[in-house]
Predict the 3D structure of the following.
Amino acid sequence: MRGRFITLEGIEGVGKTTQVATVRATLEALQRPFVTTREPGGTPLAEDIRALVLAPREEAVPGSAELLLMFAARAVHVANLILPTLASGKDVVCDRFTDATYAYQGGGRHVPLPQVAALEAITHGGLQPDLTVLLDAAPALALQRAKRRGATDRFEAETVAFFDRVRAAYLERAAAEPARFVVIDATQPLAEVSAAVAAAVVAAAARWNAAAPAATPASTGAVAPEVEQPA
C-alpha cells in the first residue's frame, strides 16, 4: 500500500519546525512508518540548490530564476526521495512543497501562476499531498518570531508587504482545496496549535485507513535508493 504525503506550510515564524515534530510524534503513536524531509532540499543535490536559493547576495535574483531553482530542487527531491518512500509504504512528512512556490514565487514575486503550474506538471505530475497543514499568522507577528532565531536568509529579510502577499496566496489555495488543507491559527498558545495539528493528522489517518489503497503516482524521473533526511 502506498504511503501518504503530508506537508506543512506557512510563512516564516509560524512554527513549522515545531509542528513537524508534532506530526512525527502523532505518526509514531499511530504506528505509521514515515520519513521527514524539507523543501527546498531533502537530498544532497537538492540541499546544494537550497543553499543557492537562500543565501543572501548582492546580485539580484529574478523571480524566474528563483522559480526554476525551486523546481530543479523539487525534481530531484521527488524522484530520489518522495516517490520511492511513498512506494515503499512509508508516509512522507515534508516541510513545504509546491504550495509554497505558488505562495512565495507566485504571490510574493508576482510570477505568473501558469508558469508555476507548467513546471509543477513537469516536475511531479499528478503527485499532490494527501494532507496539507497550513499554519497561519499575521506576517508582522510571525516575522518578529523569525528574527529571534538570529541571522536571516533572503526570504526572512523580505518586507511585511511581501509576506502579506504570500499569506494571501496561501489562504486562497486553502480556500480552493478545503478537502486537502487544514488551516490552523498559529497565534494560539503552542499547546493548542500542537493539539490541532495532531488532531488533523489523526483524522486524516482515520480516513485513509477507511479508504481503498491509494494509487501509486506515475514516476516523473529516475528513482534512486531511499534516503531518509532529517527535518
Q: What stands out?
A: Residues 218-231 have pLDDT under 50 and may be disordered. The two ends are 24 Å apart (CA to CA). Residues 63-87 form the longest helix (25 residues). The chain has one domain: 5-210.
